[in-house]
Amino acid sequence: MRADSISDAEWQVRRDLAACYRLFVRYGWTDLIFTHLSARVPGQPEHYLINPYGLLFEEITASNLIKVDFDGRVIAGDEPFNDAGHAIHTAILRARPELNAVLHSHTRAGMAVSCMRCGLLPLSQQASEVGELVAYHDYHLATDNAAECEALGRDLGDKWLMIMRNHGLLSAARTVAEAFYHLYTLENACKVQVDVLASGGEYVTPSAEAVAAIAGYARPPADAPADFVTRAWDALLRQLQRDGAAYKD
User: Fold this and answer.
1) What are the E-state strand segments in 11-130?
2) What is the tens place of the pLDDT at every residue in 98-108?
3) DSSP labels for 204-222?
4) Looking at the whole model, is its pTM more than 0.90?
């Protein structure tokens, strides 16, 4: 149930973020209750929305997302947040004020590639699409660690995706839709890489010219998310609605 104090803009972001949690369930990206997705509150740049710690992603709705400030105070909601989630998300949102959504996953393929010294290889079209958007961050425990938070923001730099070594994946973007699309693309690239390397066969990679052309085509526009990103997100929302996912309230 929407509270009277929630603006139209915030309610839309809440619905998008809740939908993203349900899409994590659909694509098998959940890790019990131990990952987290966030979105900056419109008009409140130092407040963000995140899942109540302890709920499964299939239980997340627009209204039960909690609002937290960068200092860790719960502004709206009755549940606690995950400490590591707070550390990771505030680190990125502080470092990149132009970005508004941060998604973090512990998928099997993403974690596998995060353990590979080679990092992401340009084996597939999807890997080439996002390769130049990827930063790397060495593993440290992220709970209440100011130095680690500073390192996370610094290591992301001007990139949009992060492979957190020995940990998982992270996507940061201007909208929930854009963050989801980039993470989806990186996740698929990781799956392909794991399969190719596991096959033991000799593999081929595209030419440098081909990789550059694909990266240029998929590079995020400066002014707004790409049209194909928005179209894909709208299609996913229609699918959730057809399947009766009750995330909007």
Assistant:
1) 36-41, 44-50, 66-69, 74-76, 101-105
2) 999 999 999 99
3) ----HHHHHHHHHHHSPPS
4) yes
